[in-house]
Amino acid sequence: MPHAIRFERTGGPEVLQWVEVEVPPPAAGEVRVRHQAVGLNFIDTYHRSGLYPVPLPSGIGQEAAGVIEAVGEGVAEFAPGDRVAYVGGALGAYSEIRNVVASSLVKLPDSLSFEQGAAMMMQGLTAQYLLRRTYRVEPGDCILIHAAAGGVGLIVCQWAKALGATVIGTVSSEAKAELARANGCDHAIVTPVDSVSARVREITGGEGVPVVYDSVGKDTFMDSLACLRPLGTMVTFGNASGPVPPFDPGLLARMGSLFLTRPTLFHYIARREDLLAMAAELFAVVEAGQVRLSINQRFPLKEAATAHRELEARRTTGSSVLLP
């Protein structure tokens, strides 16, 4: 029987279990996918820890790439043998084989590997909506991206640079600073050595930046606001250090009539036409070499607990994949 990672209670990585699972024939509107690579993302740790509650017991993981083995009734867009990738839908991507709703899938171009497909859907589509939809970066913009050496960060650095932006990034070590610079980051700020807002003001001649992309959350939120110029946009899209505590919205007015948004990828890809358009743009910049995916860690799927420990300890860079 095929295996999958599941958890019956929330907690640390030790709650993840490698178990046998039964995979029935795909229902109407579904396809059965044999995974070749599975994406590892910080949101997986939120589900496991209970920060984002899910019904228990539960599977885990929202992103993978593989080959279709069977299609259910009514599925016309896909056929057995198709190479596909997906993000979203019911939790359970940490598995060898599973049934997936066909509307969540996109065809993976032959020019891209399964590892690339598994590593790019969550992080790459996040970078796409950040740069092209939440705040549309234009040539000449100067942007700030936190965790610039992480999976989303490295993609944002490269893509923003290709769009003609100046990129400021925060990192936690000089080694990560070098990695960020090698991927398009013009100014790497090592934290907590530097005051981020002071350095951003210095880099921008006191003006501040029009947008901050912040996946760190609680520890960086207030200083991120201080980096923005008047009418700037604060995009808080993750909680790596914990959720942002409540604050007085009047602060946004006092700091320059700032805009604040807390987006999530799944609202941006809720309509299939948006998913297909965003994936096509992502695949195009990767195929053109404007964005290189840095898959720096590979873990056996059954060792998902180890992967979570490494991710939460900030010992990973770029993207990580789990291999069935």
Automatic annotation (TrEMBL):
UniProt keyword annotation of Nucleotidyltransferase present: no
Domain Enoyl reductase (ER) span(s) in chain numbering: 11-322
Cited SUPFAM superfamilies: GroES-like, NAD(P)-binding Rossmann-fold domains
Cellular component GO terms, alphabetical: cytosol
GO MF annotation: an example: NADPH binding
Keyword vocabulary terms for this entry: NADP, Oxidoreductase
Coiled coil: none
Source taxon at top rank: Bacteria
PANTHER family membership: QUINONE OXIDOREDUCTASE PIG3-RELATED, QUINONE OXIDOREDUCTASE-RELATED
Protein name (record): Quinone oxidoreductase
